[in-house]
């Protein structure tokens, strides 16, 4: 399939016991505070047989056999009710083992039935069971060429739940992930990386040659999403001169409750640990983060309107470097008139493996609107003909009003972004600075 096949709500990892964390190359005492759910057991079984099998608690898995059949209603209405008690029990168990529970992460796909339906059901459960804990959602949106015909229905139905129950959503598009991995391949093949690529890595075949991209390289695409989350949680795991609490992201970047979709960009893009890449100059790294090529959705934030922006930097970077680059970039970026200084910054002293520094930018920006408009258009092409509706309406508790309410919610969201964009051409008012008498 063209989407991530499983989702999990992630807690911070911690060591259990007094033994070494790694022994003879194997992870011994670190356990992810995670619940893995999939209504087809294949993907979860692959994890249990793969190199990360010791990271996840085998008791914190929920699987079925038949899957959701690419149907949001099956995932949300059928499996949601069937597995509700089991999910709540395992969520509570994982939460009880956390020393300091900051937030929940949900990672899910939007195009299929389990990720969209059961994924948003779990989101609702988290709000009911842990109303005071922030809910961050990483949502992988399907491309226009994906192989799930009903993905527009599933995605729009899921978006209504995201609008109402998530605190922050990090939208990611399969197409963008695929293009990023494609760039890595092109640079490897051209020799521009300078580059050494390990044998049998995520970007090479078992023979050591670069993979062809006739089939989408899911491992490498998922690796990019993993690196996004690693950078996002770095301040919680490592020391830094300006650590950023995860809850501060929602507090500072979401001025209105429904406009909580944050466009993410990573630099360097080539954060795969098995690709040796020359480090980018620090100032170039900041410029890259605002370029179209580094966004994890098909968007160009520099030509859209910013409500706020967060920069999470890892490595040997000083606060003065941050401020210098913000001042350098500000003239080329359009911020709303009432939040011209809408920057939130974080510094973590520990860089990613193989790099001297890295940057994750999170932008509350109207550039996300075209993604939603395209999704709405794809939905309406099916909905006008009432195509495939009977598959959904035969599920208990599913009515046609669910579709009309979902598309209405999405239309209202698009209109809110339109109203913001309409203010973009207004005069820029520089806020008055505090004058200090000497």
From TrEMBL:
Needed cofactors: Mg(2+)
Tubulin/FtsZ 2-layer sandwich domain location: 242-377
PROSITE patterns: TUBULIN
BP terms from Gene Ontology: microtubule-based process
CC terms in the record's Gene Ontology section: microtubule
InterPro entries xref list: Epsilon_tubulin (IPR004057), Tub_FtsZ_C (IPR008280), Tubulin (IPR000217), Tubulin/FtsZ_2-layer-sand-dom (IPR018316), Tubulin/FtsZ_GTPase_sf (IPR036525), Tubulin_C (IPR023123), Tubulin_CS (IPR017975), Tubulin_FtsZ_GTPase (IPR003008)
GO molecular function, one term: GTP binding
Pfam family membership, one: Tubulin
Swiss-Prot/TrEMBL keywords: Cytoplasm, Cytoskeleton, GTP-binding, Microtubule, Nucleotide-binding
Gene3D superfamilies cross-referenced by the UniProt entry: Helix hairpin bin, Tubulin/FtsZ, GTPase domain
Subcellular location: Cytoplasm, Cytoskeleton
Domain called Tubulin/FtsZ GTPase: residue spans: 18-240
Family assignment from sequence similarity: Belongs to the tubulin family.
Subunit note: Dimer of alpha and beta chains. A typical microtubule is a hollow water-filled tube with an outer diameter of 25 nm and an inner diameter of 15 nM. Alpha-beta heterodimers associate head-to-tail to form protofilaments running lengthwise along the microtubule wall with the beta-tubulin subunit facing the microtubule plus end conferring a structural polarity. Microtubules usually have 13 protofilaments but different protofilament numbers can be found in some organisms and specialized cells.
Record's protein name: Tubulin epsilon 1
Phylogenetic classification of the source organism: Eukaryota, Metazoa, Chordata, Craniata, Vertebrata
């Amino acid at each position: 399939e063209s989407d991530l096949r499983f989702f999990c709500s992630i807690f911070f990892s911690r060591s259990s016991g007094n033994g070494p964390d790694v022994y003879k190359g194997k992870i011994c005492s670190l356990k992810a505070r995670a619940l893995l759910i999939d209504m087809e057991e294949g993907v979860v079984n692959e994890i249990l047989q793969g190199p990360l099998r010791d990271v996840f608690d085998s008791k914190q898995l929920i699987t079925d056999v038949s899957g959701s059949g690419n149907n949001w209603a099956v995932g949300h209405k059928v499996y949601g009710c069937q597995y509700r008690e089991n999910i709540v029990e395992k969520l509570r168990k994982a939460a009880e083992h956390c020393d300091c529970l900051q937030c929940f992460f949900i990672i899910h796909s939007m195009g299929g039935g389990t990720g969209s339906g059961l994924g948003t059901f779990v989101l609702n459960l988290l709000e009911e069971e842990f109303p005071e804990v922030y809910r961050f959602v990483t949502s992988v949106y399907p491309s226009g060429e994906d192989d799930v015909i009903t993905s527009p229905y599933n995605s729009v139905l899921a978006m209504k739940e995201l609008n109402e129950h998530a605190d922050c959503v990090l939208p990611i598009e399969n197409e963008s992930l695929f293009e990023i991995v494609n760039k890595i391949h092109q640079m490897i093949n051209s020799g521009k990386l300078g580059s050494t690529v390990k044998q049998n890595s995520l970007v090479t075949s078992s023979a050591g040659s670069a993979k062809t991209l006739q089939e989408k390289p899911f491992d490498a695409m998922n690796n990019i999403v993993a690196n996004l989350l690693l950078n996002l949680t770095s301040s919680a795991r490592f020391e830094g001169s300006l650590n950023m609490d995860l809850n501060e992201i929602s507090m500072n970047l979401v001025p209105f409750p429904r406009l909580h979709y944050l466009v993410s960009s990573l630099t360097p893009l080539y954060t795969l640990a098995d690709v040796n890449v020359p480090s980018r100059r620090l100032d170039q790294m900041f410029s890259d983060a605002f370029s179209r090529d580094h966004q994890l959705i098909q968007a160009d934030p520099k030509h859209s309107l910013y409500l706020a922006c967060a920069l999470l930097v890892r490595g040997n970077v000083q606060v003065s470097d941050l401020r210098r680059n913000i001042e350098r970039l500000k003239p080329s970026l359009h911020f709303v008139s009432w939040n011209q200084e809408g920057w939130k910054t974080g510094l973590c002293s520990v860089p990613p493996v193989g790099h001297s520094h890295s940057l994750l930018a999170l932008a509350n920006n109207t550039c996300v609107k075209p993604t939603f408009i395209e999704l709405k258009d794809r939905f309406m092409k099916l909905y006008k003909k009432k195509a495939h509706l009977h598959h959904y309406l035969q599920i208990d508790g599913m009515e046609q009003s669910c579709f009309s309410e979902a598309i209405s919610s999405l239309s209202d969201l698009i209109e809110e972004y339109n109203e913001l964009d309409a203010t973009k051409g207004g005069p820029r008012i520089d806020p008055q600075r505090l004058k200090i008498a000497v």
